[in-house]
Amino acid sequence: MSGPTGLSGLPKAPDHVEPAPEWGRLDARMLVVRPLHEIVGFVPVLVALLVFGTGDAWRVLLSLAVIVLLVLRGLFSWLTTRYRISESQVELHSGLLSRKRKAVPRDRIRTADLTAKFGHRLFGLSAIRIGTGQHAKGKADGLLLDAVPVPEAERLRVVLLQRGVGHREAAVETAPAEARSTAIATLHRSWLRFAPLSLSGLLSIGAVIGVLVNAANEVDVRISRMAAVKEVVRWARESSLVLVVAVAIAVVLVLAVLGSLLKYVLQYAGYRLTRQADGTVRVTRGLLTTRSVSIEEKRLRGVQVGEPMLLRAGHGAKVSAVTTGLGKEQGGSLLLPPAPRAEAHRVVAEVLRLPEPPTSAELTRHPRRALARRLVRAVGAAVLVEAALLLTVAAWDWPLVLPLAWLVALPAAAWLGVDRYRRLGHALTERYLVSRTGSLDTKTVALQRDGIIGWRIRRTWFQRRTGLMTVTATTAAGRGAYSVPDIGEADGVALALDAVPGLLRPFAEPVSPESRPTPS
């Protein structure tokens, strides 16, 4: 491919593009790409059949027949799929036995994101997902054009994100192409140190073990009869329990670190966050599968800074967008992968176009009565488990070491309750409502005050006894609701009244100190 290149070597889209009213067909190279992606899942089984198989020819023939069916499926999909982009809507016709006709009005399009798996990149193709931001029964509403040439995908992205003639004319820039985007953040090699500070490595180990066990079962391979497994079992029986546990922990940690590093590289290699001239913030990332997500700034309602405990201990954080029109299945809300905490706050300020990030504002502490609630819930759960273990030991004559070992969890639970309270807080800046909650996974949300469309105030029986409440701001973006838990009653009402003046005032009643319940 020739012509000027943009992010990740992709060709630049033209300054001004028009829709193509005629019906188009997906690229013919999808005949190879789609079966290639689906056959990859059969590779472990085929390898196991050839290496460990017992000579059952019917299993090999059945696997080959499945591959042939996948190829035929790709052929029929290409023959029966058509799409068209008119001035008013995007249409997609597909299917052979079950014909599907979909149409999305262009004024309802919220996202046009590009994804290129390894097979797509191998043949210079990309998949473009057109979303409306609507979700029904857990499924996103929209269209997927699975295989179009990269230049055409870039062209369609520009076309579909245009809003009428006025927007289209405003998108035409006289500046050079390379000057139409501004870099906000790019991946640094030093960020790899944050990869092991998550549970993704352990999850990856579990997934790999599950795939291997499933493949072994498919080909009737008895893992327990393998020589290497027998040798490991023999060594474990002959060694002391302390040595076996220490070696097992060391092996798991090494595999978890390697798995975390591999997953971080696969997900975030080539990461780049830029601001485009068309009023969008664009995130590009991925090694084998590249993903490009555009977030319109006018639909951005805030940001969320996530700090899981291990990542927080390493002074790291990650940033997500609170915006409309993005589905969870796309992973499109990510703005910054695990990175230094200072970098996270800098990205927040850059994305929100503010001199100082609201997520680093000084927070107002909640009443100490909120500390008691967290201690009761954390320590109370540990005490209940301890009591259940003692009853089990008494009834079934189990070893006493179980409840004794669980006693270690009591001070840990107390520390967790204190840390949850210590990290609890809120603030109200000129434009944002800031709330921080959680300990194992601390989340600091800066929600645009103009984006708040309603309030929910909840007072449980225990909260009423202690003069606390939970104030929840509802919005049409992100999770849809963001809470400020266990805030004082007077402070909670004042926060809602000040955050969006006039929204709650018709329903508010003055709370006098005499009318508040006495904390018990």
UniProtKB/TrEMBL annotation:
<keyword id="KW-0812">Transmembrane</keyword>
<keyword id="KW-1133">Transmembrane helix</keyword>
<dbReference type="InterPro" id="IPR005182">
    <property type="entry name" value="YdbS-like_PH"/>
</dbReference>
<feature type="domain" description="YdbS-like PH">
    <location>
        <begin position="421"/>
        <end position="492"/>
    </location>
</feature>
<feature type="domain" description="YdbS-like PH">
    <location>
        <begin position="78"/>
        <end position="157"/>
    </location>
</feature>
<protein>
    <submittedName>
        <fullName>Putative membrane protein</fullName>
    </submittedName>
</protein>
<feature type="transmembrane region" description="Helical">
    <location>
        <begin position="60"/>
        <end position="79"/>
    </location>
</feature>
<feature type="transmembrane region" description="Helical">
    <location>
        <begin position="241"/>
        <end position="266"/>
    </location>
</feature>
<keyword id="KW-0472">Membrane</keyword>
<feature type="transmembrane region" description="Helical">
    <location>
        <begin position="400"/>
        <end position="418"/>
    </location>
</feature>
<feature type="transmembrane region" description="Helical">
    <location>
        <begin position="194"/>
        <end position="216"/>
    </location>
</feature>
<dbReference type="InterPro" id="IPR014529">
    <property type="entry name" value="UCP026631"/>
</dbReference>
<feature type="transmembrane region" description="Helical">
    <location>
        <begin position="35"/>
        <end position="54"/>
    </location>
</feature>
<dbReference type="Pfam" id="PF03703">
    <property type="entry name" value="bPH_2"/>
</dbReference>
<feature type="transmembrane region" description="Helical">
    <location>
        <begin position="375"/>
        <end position="394"/>
    </location>
</feature>
